[in-house]
Every structure is written in structure tokens, then in C-alpha cells.
């Protein structure tokens, strides 16, 4: 009886190797950042490889300086990686224990190593006016930025990291 239990344990342990040639990296390498409106219009549909980064850039509505919230595809999981804030204005600031605050050398600061998974790989954003100019930027990438405020100011949009063959949720 004991040999049967050992055989079962061995079979269960080897199950992940059953698909020879299939690589978890290949399954997550081609995730997509998709941003859709409540009506289902697609504003962004861009491939984001494993380790790929993007930021939501916007102007603070009171202080009028640029803020960056930067995300990364970590093995198919959307993570808030870091944030850049030029000042401690209303609604901004570092929360102790959530990332590491460092000077940007210009009077502002980065909050690095936040590395917080975004629940269900999606979140809702109320897009600001053209003065706020919410936009998607691709640090270190040749892709042009996409202004969400130009096409969806005042609207609720859903940002999500999805598999290449998945349909965006609304």
C-alpha cells in the first residue's frame, strides 16, 4: 500500500511537467494592456511582455505638476511598481511600509519598490479633464503616449492586463 501512495505523490509532483514544450513564460510573455470605456470602446490595446512597464501620467488638479504611477507585468500579474510625486500635495504622499521613498534630485521624490499586485489585474479610473491629461506612457519605449483625457474626459475607464486571447471585461 505504501508504494501506491508514493506513486501518487510522484505523479502529482510531475503533473506540471506533463505539457512538454509548454513554457509558463511563453504564456505570460504576450499579455496585453487593454483600456476600455464603459460602453466597450477600446482606447488602448498594447502588448506588454513579461517585465514590461507602463505609467499613467497626469497633472495634479490643485498643484498642476506631473505625477506618474508606474506598473509592470510580473509573470502575468499587474503590479504597481513605483510612483513619482514632485511634492506632498493633497492626496499624495508616501505611506510608511509601502515602498521606499527616495529623492528625485529635483525637489520631488520617487516611491520605489511598491510592488503591489493590482486586484484581478484591473482597476477603474475616472479620467480627468484635458487640463489633468491622464495618459499612458511607456518609459524607455518608442511607443507614443496615449492621452485618455483627449478621448474619454470625465468617463470611467477600465485598465486591465489580460492574456492575448482574452476579451476585456467591462
Spell out the key features of this protein:
four-stranded antiparallel beta sheet; disordered N terminus; 12 strands; mainly beta; 14% helix; single chain
Summarize the structure.
The protein is mainly beta and 170 residues long. 14% of the residues lie in helices and 39% in strands.
General form: globular
Number of strands: 12
SS class: mainly beta
Q: Supply Rg.
A: 20 Å
Which consecutive residue ranges, at least 5 long each, have pLDDT under 50?
1-26
Strand content: 35-45%
* Arithmetic mean pLDDT: 80
Head-to-tail CA distance between termini? 52 Å
Classify the helix fraction into a percent range.
Answer: 10-25%
Largest sheet features: 8 strands, antiparallel
> Which sequence of SSEs, written as H and E, runs from N to C?
HHEEEEEEEEEEEHE
Task: Please report the number of helical segments.
Answer: 3
Task: Give the topology, please.
Layout: H1 2-14, H2 24-28, E1 31-37, E2 42-48, E3 53-59, E4 66-74, E5 77-85, E6 100-103, E7 109-112, E8 116-117, E9 122-126, E10 135-137, E11 146-147, H3 148-152, E12 156-162
Antiparallel strand pairs: 1-2, 1-12, 3-4, 3-10, 4-5, 5-7, 5-8, 6-7, 9-12, 10-11
Mind explaining what this structure looks like?
- The chain has 170 residues and is mainly beta.
- It is 14% helix and 39% strand.
- It has 3 helices and 12 strands.
- It starts with a helix and ends in an 8-residue tail after the last strand.
- The N terminus is likely disordered.
